[in-house]
Amino acid sequence: MPLPDILPITPFTRPARGVVALPGSKSLTNRALLLAALCERPVTLTGALASEDTHLMAEALRKLGFTVAGDETTHTLRVADQARGFPASANVQPVDLFVGLAGTAARFLTALCAAAPRGTYRLDGVPQMRKRPMKPLIDALRALGADVRCTGAEGFFPLEIHARGLRGGAVSIDASESSQLLSALLMVAPLAATPITITLVGGVRWPFVAMTINQMAQLGYAQKLTRQGDTLAVPLGRYAPPASYAIEPDATASSYFTALPLAVGGTIHVANLLPPAQGLQGDAQFLAVLERVGATIVAARGDVDVAAPPRTALRGVTQDFSEFSDTFLTLAALAPLLAGPTRISGIAHSRKQETDRVAGMARELTKLGQHVVEEHDALTITPRPLKPGVEIETYGDHRFAMSFGILGCHNLHGDGRPWLSVKNPACCAKTFPHFFELLETVRQNSLAP
């Protein structure tokens, strides 16, 4: 069902209950698509996410000559005809690739095209994509012999790449603004002419880099990367994948439904959500934040139950989100319901994501009557009585829509009347197209006798 331009959120009048099945991870699906294109034989991705970002990635691979067959009903993607990837002749027309606002597709495809043996590739996205960090990756690829040309502002999209492969050698990269810059380089590095040694300049969100390295191994890269201090050595190798590769459910998306009981009470059972020690995704660390806020977390057999404490037991926390910052908006949106201030730090790099998430969150919470102190790298939110009748601006950012969608489920008036609306709820299509449909299903389940 199409969503309206402005969606009033219907509060829960009874505690949440039921089972939530999450979509596949966007981060893992787009990494797996790139790695599958680099593999020596066809591979089927199961549990794959079907969303705007993954559609953009799959369509770009098709334009590069790969076969990517998707079946949304079975949540599968099959990548084949790797030998036909990239133009057969250097004289063919340039290939135009559109990445929308998908940061993973932008960074991963830039690295893939730079590592291609031949061809000319022009990459662009929506206007906001032209503001997102690309320069460290561009500079690193150039240092490895790639011909990458910025046809607009230097260091940003749009790009034109004249492929001739990567020669290898030593290179440095600053991935402090986005770990995807390093992940993109890592995934194509085994196919360079000589081994690549990467020195990190500045910090990096290591859980996402570790996720990339582990996924490389799972898709058949048998060599062992070594790390000495800030230097990673990537041996040459090939990807020899299994015939089928399973994508984990999205740990970032899980933050909304694991947080739901804190807004409405009750218990939610999230299927196939792996804790950090068992899965690839660092964003599963958000479960520990919910425990500190007051939730009861029970993980067993790969599933997680989240139960809310009495309303008076919910408390504000101080939390560094530098390693799992995509989930900071979920906590920030819930902060008005917690007792005492909530301080969120380690989020400066999120100012350069889909939008300036720090400033946007401060602005929307202030509209709701909250006292917010905004710093470059942090937000401190002190609860005040919530102001009803507010329309939340999402800035085209899916995480604003989903985070405030959960807050709107709180029964502020006590009688189920909507008090909060979300503008442009369809922006969730980027990573979680059926989010509001699933949220309504959970609400209806809570009403059942």
Topology:
Elements: E1 6-8, E2 19-21, H1 26-38, E3 43-46, H2 52-63, E4 67-71, E5 76-80, E6 95-98, H3 103-115, E7 120-124, H4 135-143, E8 147-150, E9 159-162, E10 169-173, H5 179-188, E11 196-200, H6 206-218, E12 226-228, E13 231-234, E14 244-246, H7 251-264, E15 267-271, H8 286-293, E16 296-300, E17 303-307, E18 318-320, H9 328-334, E19 342-345, H10 357-367, E20 371-374, E21 378-382, E22 390-392, H11 398-407, E23 420-423, H12 435-447
Helix pairs in contact: 1-2, 1-3, 1-6, 3-5, 4-5, 5-6, 7-11, 9-11
Q: Would you mind describing this structure in some detail?
A:
With 449 residues, this protein is of the alpha/beta class. It has two domains: 6-22 and 313-447, UDP-n-acetylglucosamine1-carboxyvinyl-transferase, Chain; 26-231, Enolpyruvate transferase domain (UDP-n-acetylglucosamine1-carboxyvinyl-transferase, Chain), CATH 3.65.10. 30% of the residues lie in helices and 21% in strands. It has helices at residues 26-38, 52-63, 103-115, 135-143, 179-188, 206-218, 251-264, 286-293, 328-334, 357-367, 398-407, 435-447, and strands spanning 6-8, 19-21, 43-46, 67-71, 76-80, 95-98, 120-124, 147-150, 159-162, 169-173, 196-200, 226-228, 231-234, 244-246, 267-271, 296-300, 303-307, 318-320, 342-345, 371-374, 378-382, 390-392, 420-423. The strands form six sheets. A four-stranded mixed beta sheet has the order 2-15-17-16, covered by helices on one side. Strands 4-5-3-14 form a four-stranded mixed beta sheet, with helices on one face. It has a four-stranded mixed beta sheet with strand order 6-7-9-8. A hairpin with a 3-residue loop joins strand 20 (371-374) and strand 21. Helix 1 packs parallel to helix 2 and helix 3 runs parallel beside helix 5. The longest helix has 14 residues, at 251-264. It is globular, with a radius of gyration of 22 Å. The two termini are 27 Å apart. The model has no long low-confidence stretch (mean pLDDT 96).
